[in-house]
Design goal:
- The protein is of the alpha+beta class.
- It contains four helices and 19 strands.
- Among the domains are: about 100 residues, Beta Barrel (Elongation Factor Tu (Ef-tu), domain 3); about 110 residues, no CATH class.
Length: about 375
């Protein structure tokens, strides 16, 4: 009985001691990802097609067929001006043309018979041609008084109503084709050799801080700015959602030298002067401090050039509580898809289930020990 009690106590103390010597941590896995060298700058958006619609004649507005921020199609009528004078002139010239045609029809047989002179027929022919030319001019005047959309796009704000008198050059509204946006930005001359049309970019805006907009460089300016020593580049960014607006300031990241490389989360790095290290967890959950060489750092990850192998486990959270040769208890694996709070909550749930299981095992063990003790007492 005494020996069994000592063995149970020794087992329990050994478990408690072993558990007390392990430090809970969150681990990450050394992964291979596609990364690129980056160049960052700022730029301004503008529409692929953009203009201010203006009046061409001095006339009053007769119809307003648009609303603010309306999407329109090429050729769609937007505004009509008063054309009553032109329509009256058109009717007059149509009458002249009709009369000229009648006279030509009447003089043709007479000229053939010699009953009328050719000059009379020619005069009526000239009257017909003059009426036709005058009608073309009047129709051009009417067309100038009908404002149409020159391309597909979205309208801006307008401040005109029926009856507004406009002068040539007066602004009516703006029209932007925002299906794709131009992003103009300057590139320092030191990066000139690595920037070319087709290079991928990623842009961010304070208006949408968590939304990246991807595009590519379309063209480069033919000369550098002699004052800033920079080159103006133009990128095209698709804008199917219509979120991007002309004039928006964007932070631009250019990607070059794309490659597959091993990466680790930046929070796993131990930095001392110019040296970088990580805590590697071996198969026995023992810590090894290992020096590594890092390269590009972007989007919360650091490229590992030397010192680690794909699939190795490293400490990402709990670094300050461990050191070389420490024994750790991995509570969760950080794959970059969950926050620390979510990882800890998941680990807590698992721990509760584990503790419940251990409690049941311990209760069963104590019950068995007590039974054995009672049996030994009954049989001295």
């Amino acid at each position: 009985m005494f020996r069994l009690s000592l063995l149970a106590l020794a087992f329990l103390l050994s478990s408690l001691y072993s558990h007390a010597q392990t430090t809970p941590v969150i681990a990450g896995i050394v992964q291979e990802k596609t990364i690129s060298d980056t160049v960052e700058t700022t730029g301004t958006l503008r529409s692929e097609q953009s203009l201010t619609l203006r009046a061409q004649v001095t006339e009053r507005v007769s119809e307003v067929l648009i609303s603010d921020n309306q999407r329109v199609s090429k050729g769609q009528i937007l505004v009509k001006f008063d054309t009553s004078d032109e329509q009256a002139q058109q009717q007059e010239q149509n009458a002249f043309l009709s009369e000229a045609n009648k006279q030509i029809k009447r003089f043709n047989p007479l000229v053939k018979k010699g009953s009328a002179s050719v000059s009379d027929l020619d005069a009526n022919t000239r009257n017909k041609e003059a009426a036709q030319a005058r009608l073309q001019f009047i129709q051009a005047q009417i067309n100038q008084r009908i404002l149409r959309a020159p391309f597909d796009g979205v309208l801006g704000l307008h401040n005109i109503t029926v009856g507004t008198l406009l002068q040539p050059g007066d602004a009516i509204t703006t029209l932007d084709n925002d299906s794709a946006m131009y992003l103009d930005f300057s590139i320092p001359e030191v990066f000139l050799a690595s920037v070319m049309p087709g290079l991928k970019i990623k842009a961010f805006s304070h208006a949408y801080p968590n939304t990246p907009f991807e595009g590519e460089i379309k063209s480069l300016n033919s000369r550098l700015d002699p004052v800033t020593r920079s080159l103006l580049a133009r990128a095209v960014i698709p804008n199917p959602s219509g979120k991007l607006k002309p004039g928006l300031l964007m932070r631009v990241t250019l990607f070059k030298n794309q490659r597959d490389a091993l990466t680790v989360p930046e929070e796993s790095l131990l930095i001392n002067a110019n040296q970088h290290a990580v805590y590697v967890i071996d198969d026995q959950n023992t810590i090894e401090k290992r020096l590594i060489t890092i390269g590009q750092r972007q989007f919360g990850h650091a490229e590992v050039i030397k010192g680690l192998q794909k699939g190795e486990r490293i400490v990402t959270h709990g670094i300050s509580r461990v050191g070389p040769n420490s024994n750790v208890n991995i509570k969760a694996i950080d794959d970059g898809t969950k926050t620390v709070s979510e990882l800890l909550a998941k680990a807590s749930d698992k721990s509760s289930v584990s503790n419940s299981t251990k409690h049941n095992i311990k209760s069963n063990t104590n019950s068995n020990t007590l039974d054995n003790t009672q049996t030994a007492s009954a049989n001295p």
